[in-house]
Specification:
Distance between the termini: 43 Å
Strand content: 15-25%
Mean pLDDT: 92
Order of helices and strands: HEEEHEEEHEEEHEEHHHHHH
Shape: globular
Low-confidence stretches: none
Helix content: 25-40%
Number of domains: 2
Length: 304
């Protein structure tokens, strides 16, 4: 079974989960095509060349009815069709109201997804009370339970259509500001501070979303190391990307006042933490740690 087939099977399950009942079906379309399923959207006439209509039950008992009550307006939704192999896969929806995009929604449909959704809700509550100057997170609009599922509703961020390069100084300021959210010592991190979760705002701040991995009690610089590894993984395989992340440790973490030895130790601790996360998730997107992590640690015994 290929990725598209697995996505479509997950889509069928998600439709049954979020659109229960026997209401009159509404027509939706899988875009850009059933062979490349990425979004389920309300069908319009120009979708015909892109595949057959998908009947989706309607009615007040569906997620649409629930979100309309939460937001106090009539809404329509676009459902993201999630990748086949993701440890944190969960239903994600765009909610559109009369004036356009109104919210994003995450639905905790498993024990792991519920834990992540609840963690993000707690993080956004913390951020709402923080005197942020550099980081611009979403606003928590609602977190509650519906039909035994955790539902998180957050505001959309003003992400520009064409993303501009992010200055290094803005990255440094954002990482430091997130770290300072730990009241005891600057060691908090976003947890997935990667290119796909950040963008430069029109007002010069840094838009940062997807806070479900936020945690405290880690060494300063973990977010910067995560960004470094994420960028390396876009160009090279995991073993080489991990080596590149460690090789650039001094340059990456110098803005945070870390010495060369401290920077290397921080990156090694970050990589171990990432491997532990993958183990807890039961998913190894970088492959077995014996391939990409263990050889690196073996060569750094003097640092450890």
């Amino acid at each position: 079974m290929n990725d598209a087939q697995i996505r479509l099977r997950y889509l069928e399950r998600t439709i049954r989960l979020l659109f229960p009942g026997a209401g009159e079906p509404s027509a939706y379309s899988v875009l850009p095509h059933p062979r490349l399923p990425r979004r389920l959207v309300p069908r319009t006439w120009w979708h015909r060349p892109f595949g057959p209509a998908v009947p989706v039950p309607s009615g007040a008992e569906s997620i649409i009815g629930h979100l309309g009550e939460v937001l106090g307006m009539p809404v329509r939704v676009v459902l993201h069709i999630r990748p086949a192999r993701r440890a944190n896969r969960k239903p994600v929806l765009e909610v559109h109201g009369p004036d356009g995009l109104a919210a994003y929604v995450k639905v905790g449909d498993s024990a792991r997804a519920r834990a992540l959704v609840r963690n993000e809700a707690a993080a956004l509550r913390l951020l709402a009370d923080a005197p942020l100057k550099t980081v611009c997170p979403p606003v928590l609009l609602h977190h509650g339970e519906w039909r035994g599922l955790d539902v998180l509703v957050v505001s959309p961020l003003p992400v520009p259509r064409r993303r501009r390069p992010i200055p290094a100084q803005l990255i440094h300021a954002a990482v430091a500001e997130i770290a300072a959210l730990d009241a005891d010592t600057p060691s908090a991190w976003h947890g997935d501070f990667a290119p796909w979760n950040i963008a430069r705002a029109p007002d010069g701040r840094l838009l940062v979303w997807d806070w479900e991995r936020f945690a405290s009690g880690v060494p300063l610089g973990f977010d910067a190391a995560h960004l470094s590894l994420s960028r390396a993984l876009s160009r090279m395989r995991p073993p080489l990307a991990a080596r590149s992340c460690l090789a650039s440790a001094t340059e990456t973490l110098a803005p945070y006042g870390l010495s060369a030895a401290q920077a290397k130790l921080t990156v090694i601790r970050y990589l171990i933490t990432l491997a532990d996360r993958h183990a807890a998730d039961g998913h190894e997107p970088l492959g077995p740690p014996a391939r990409w992590l263990t050889p690196l640690i073996d060569h750094q015994e003097s640092v450890l």
